[in-house]
Amino acid sequence: MHPQIRPEIPQGNFSTRRYIPVIRKFSYGHIFALTWMTISIIISLPWVSDLGAHVTLPLAVFIIAGIAYIPGYLNAFMVFSLLFDRQPPFKVSNPVEPVTILLACYNEAKNIETTLSYIAKQDYQGNIKVIVIDNNSTDNTGDVVKAVAEKIDLDITLIHEATPGKNNALNTGLKMVSTELVITLDADTLLHKSAINNIVRRLLSSPADVCAVAGAVLVRNSRGNLIARVQEWDYFLGIASIKRLQGMFQSTLVAQGAFSLYRTAAVRSIGGWPDAIGEDIVLTWRLLANQGRVYFEPLAVAFTDVPETFIHFIRQRSRWARGMIEAIKIIKPWQQRLIYTKYLTGSNLIMPYMDVTYTFFWMPGLVLAFFGYYWIVGLYTLVVLPLTMLVNYTLYRYQKKVFRTLDLKIRRNFLGFLVYVLCYQMIMSPVSVWGYLQELFQTKRIWK
To answer: Which domain of life is it from (predicted)?
Structure first.
């Protein structure tokens, strides 16, 4: 996958099948998931009995629920919902509303020129203003921005924010926004030619209480090394599937700072971006609780750089896990307005439980299985695999349609896919547990 830009974007839906109301999808999804989990429990009773003989029955139920029953329920709900996902049509074809892009930078001299040049190539017919906030960079980021502003046709304003922290930079930029719509974009993120047009069309085609739209962020540096190649599939399949699910239920839980569109008044009404390690997570949850709904637009595609070293990957993903806990502490799931948002944010309450059981029981169980002890990892654990493959296949087919619509190509990356399917969770769960522990013990925040 790569930011290969072509001129034309076909309009319209991917499907013309009969529309099913959201509340019915929500109900049917849970019925299907409950049925799947019930069957799983019946099939696994011998497994529970065998494991209980070694670790006691209550602990056996605790372990198996965390590594099989609950993940199976959530995956079944997801796959059923995605099978019936139909993105509503755009009601606006060529929006002309002016937009402002906030671009917070810290030592981005090597990336900022390319990012700005891609903004200048947008096919959006409205006025685009860019506010670059230099967050006390120690390189020549500011000089590069000034040089770019002189040679490309783009309305660029450069300001300086000395106080470290992305939230401080964004809030400083927010004070200068005079348009009703504002976009946040990371300095290492490249926009597809029609990204702004599509994300604005989605917001303007939505009900008035939709206060933000998250764009689809994919991997730009997917040829860097194996770490980047694996993350390519995580963004393309894993993160995109979650975004689609949440967007279908009008409750995208993270309008990510890398590329999202907001109603300026809505962001200002909740005080802007908070002082949090997951500032975009907390901001989104506050918007959902106070303003209404947050959508996701799969055709608004951007390409971002992902970590290429293991230590940076661990820091990023543990930061995301910590940000989720921050959001739960600040905005409780039961404080959300919509039943869909209550469920989706509430699901995050059991994520630490699943990550803990996977890290401290499933992974040691895998080691034991190599020595002939199939107490935890054995035949019964394979029940989850067909559903996992169905989720990935369902999303792959959908993403293929998205790429065809945008005239993009899916790169071949079989090794990355193999590692993603077989090993990725064995990395992600321990990293997430590390993030939970950081928040529990309030360790020093590390952004880089």
So the answer is: Bacteria
State how far the Cα of 195 lies from the Cα of 389, in Å rounded to an integer.
30
Look at strands 259-263 and 210-219 and give their pairing: antiparallel
Sheet with 189-191: strands ordered across: 155-160, 128-134, 99-105, 181-185, 259-263, 210-219, 293-304, 189-191
Predicted TM-score (pTM) of the model is 0.91
Q: Is the pLDDT of residue 330 over 60?
A: yes
* HSE toward the beta carbon, residue 61, CA cutoff 13 A: 4
Distance CA 262, CA 177 (A): 12
Residue 446, number of CB atoms within 10 A of its CB: 12
Q: Measure Cα distances from 89 to 14, 316, 351 in Å.
A: 9, 35, 33
> Residue 227: which of 30, 424, 386 has the closest Cα?
424
For residue 185, the SS3 value is strand
**Would you give the DSSP letter of residue 90?**
P
Environment class of residue 154 by beta-carbon count within 10 Å: exposed (0-12), middle (13-18) or buried (19+)?
middle
Distance CA 173, CA 160 (A): 9
347, 361, 358, 345: which is closest to 432 by C-alpha? 358
Instruction: Out of 92-96, 226-230, 275-279, 290-294, pick the least confident.
Output: 290-294
